[in-house]
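Contributing new records

If you add data, match the layout below exactly. Sequence lines come first and carry their own label; structure lines follow with theirs. Keep one chain per record. Anything else will be rejected by the validation script.
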Amino acid sequence: MPASSSADRLCWWDNARLHLTAGMREFIAANAAWLTVFQLPTYAPDLNPQEGICSLVKRDIGNLAAADLGQITRAVKRRLKQIQYRPDFVDSCLAGTGLITDD
């Protein structure tokens, strides 16, 4: 990974089928002036900050005895909203990957 990039936005993707389609590759090529994409290895939860966020959500609702899918959906949305207002949680998930450094 380069130390610096001229792109305005960086994106780390896993190798989900959607991310490997011709359409996505065309999108990346067409927007290369502002978008830099780094492909993660096939299975690398330790490099994916999303896994940290999912872990925070699962910890909170792990013992939920939901009556229906709607209750689970509301609990997940509520927890994600709480995390959104705690940037220290998000920062810790990013820092846990080792993919960012303080400037």
